[in-house]
Every structure is written in structure tokens, then in C-alpha cells.
Amino acid sequence: GGAGLAFADLCFRAADGRAFPVHRAFACARSPYLRALAEGGFREAALLPEKGEDEEYHLPTVPIHISSEVFSVVLQYCYSDTVDGCAPELLFEVLPSADELLLPGLKALASGALAPAVGPENVFEVLRLAGLYSLPRLESRCMQVFAIWLEELYSNEEFSTLVYESAMSLKTRESADSIPLLDEIRFHITDIYSGTDADGNPAEEDDPLYEQIHERHKRFAILDEVVSSLGLRTVKVS
């Protein structure tokens, strides 16, 4: 509002030209990157009229190569420690900016908010992002999606590529080595399709939970098929 703008002492101008008056104590204290930009000299002076009034405020201005939509989320985090109300599509764009601006807290919040939006339609893209920006929580969610939707996803060429890359990531690979990606997927398959009751007792054949055992073995067989088709060998898991 007007009162907030009256006390602003710095302005960032987004890549699309929108000006963001901010309080240096909030924005620059949270991000070493923004602080370095602000301390590096100001390239222009912005004239920011206070909303609803004619009076103009002259603030030192720093251009920043981030869209106004993404920078709005950055400032929301700097001021309130939340990403509430942000659409998943926007949060995908926020991740690289949070990484560049040295805001690990924003990365963690964005990845946590994104986790429920991960599904078979975007899991490959999300997994690449999670690996690129070191987001283990998001990687774990991707492994859950693979475990649940394996029958629909395993024939995708990108899945085979991920398995092969994971196998080759080991510096010295023996023929019987496990494959990290498949180990993670197997862990989630076992967790989701445990075939046990709340007390950990295995289901009997006439128990509805017994179907989970069938689903688990079916998924393990699919993973073995993928490994075989790639000419890899791995430890068998029952």
C-alpha cells in the first residue's frame, strides 16, 4: 500500500520493466545476491508515484533479469516466508531464480509446494529440475510417481535413459551392482504396496491387502525387464 511505498528505500526493475519498491532491510538481508546487486551501484533513478497520489518518490533502482511474476514470489518469500497462492507453473519458474539469488529457503518452500503437483505427465521434467537444483524432497516425490505409474511410464524412452544414466553414474560399476534410481523406486514400491496391515502383519490370500503383494511383484518384474533390455545386470529383489 501507500504507507509501505513511502518507507521504501530501494527499487528493483524486473526484466519486463515493472518496478518493485522494496525495503532494503528485508530484500537484501535475505538474499546475498540482491545485496551484492544493490551495493554494486545504481544505473538509473526511478520515479515511482505513490498509488492514488501525485507525489513522486525518487528511489535508487537496480535492474534485475527476472520476470515480474517470478520476482513477486521472491519478494513474497523475503517479506513473509511463504509461497502461498502461487500456481505450480509459476513455482517451476521460481526454482532457477531462487537458486541464482542464493535463497535456499525459497527453493525448499517451492519444491515442497510443487510436490503434490507432480504426476505422470510431468515427472520426467520435474526429476531433471530436482537433480539440477539439489531438491531431494522433490526427487523423492518423483520416485513415488514412478512407483505408482510404472506400467504407464516404463516404456517411455526417457525412463530407459534415466535408468542407464543412473547405472553409469557409479564410478566403478560391477555387473551385480544395484542401480541407484531403481533402488529408490523399489523402496517406494515396497512402501506403497507392502501387503501388510497396520501392525506389520503380512496379508493372507483372502485379504484385500494381498493384492498389494501381486502389484509389488508385478512392478519389480517390470524393473527387471527394463534392466535386461538395456543389457544391464542388477541385484534381484524379491
UniProtKB/TrEMBL annotation:
One GO CC term, this protein: cytoplasm
Signal peptide: none
Superkingdom of this protein's organism: Eukaryota
A family per Pfam: BTB
InterPro entries: ABTB1, BTB/POZ_dom, SKP1/BTB/POZ_sf
PANTHER family the record matches: ANKYRIN REPEAT AND BTB/POZ DOMAIN-CONTAINING PROTEIN 1 (PTHR46231), ANKYRIN REPEAT AND BTB_POZ DOMAIN-CONTAINING PROTEIN 1 (PTHR46231:SF1)
Protein name as it appears in the record: BTB domain-containing protein
Organism: Heterosigma akashiwo
Phylogenetic placement of the source organism: Eukaryota, Sar, Stramenopiles, Ochrophyta, Raphidophyceae
